[in-house]
Amino acid sequence: MELRHLEHFLAVADTGSFTRAAARLHVVQSGVSATVRALERELGSELFDRSGRHVTLTAAGKALQPRARDTLDAARAAKDAVHRVQGALHGTVTVGTLTAIDVVDLPGLLAELRAEHPGVTVRLRAAMAGSAGLAQHLREGRLDVAFLALPDPRPSDLDTRLLATAELAVYVPGSHPLAGEHRATLARLAEFPFVDTPVGFGSRTVVDRAFAAAGVEREVTVEVANVATAVDFVRAGLGIAFLADRLVPDPSGLHVVQVADGDLHWRLTVATAAARRPSAATRAFLDLLHERHPTPVTPRG
Hints:
alpha/beta; Arc Repressor Mutant, subunit A; D-Maltodextrin-Binding Protein, domain 2; 5-stranded mixed sheet; 4-stranded mixed sheet; 41% helix; DNA binding; WH_DNA-bd_sf; transcription; LysR_subst-bd
């Protein structure tokens, strides 16, 4: 069994497709299929069910998956140890990020990391399922580190550090019936349609939990994956929205309504999987991030 066998196996397991796995690995699909078949012959068991539209893991494949990740992590740690002795840092860091964060100057951070460690490659990944999707990808080993906007309590299987927090308020058009109100209850707000992010995004979870705790139902009529664009839909009269003020650099034509019976906050954290020790390259990324953001910040208010 070679490390390449395990890399190809995990690529198929993560993507659910031999075609997508080949694209991720930058090899031909027939090569991935042949490698996985060779691994199955060596283990004497099929690792994937190929009968449906999507490739899924068999019981044997599910048993192998965490061990394969552990093996590759151990091999990476061995390389890191040698590189440290040589005085050079090499490796790849896969970073999950949200569609709209300006708390962290990510281009500047990566430029500094590149200047200090030119042998480190960073891959940025976004999840259409928002923070919930990124957290799951961390658990599965698809990501090394991720920026998450998960509400408390924070998952026990992730190591997280708070980077920023911001209060959420409701933004409405100037002509809206709520425009004359400075504060409103959740029940009052629920009388109107909302613009929000899809289920699984951090801010959506915070707001949904608040309404559920109050026993109030609301209607989300427009969902946008990039929360920074929500204000444009509010201006167009398609609904009202819970937003942090940093997402609304130009509030002209809008009115802000505070929540009278709730304390809703958006929190940004950086996270790694608790069960896996970060590689040297990932540690360098986290250390540089800590240097730039040693304490949580509160966006302007």
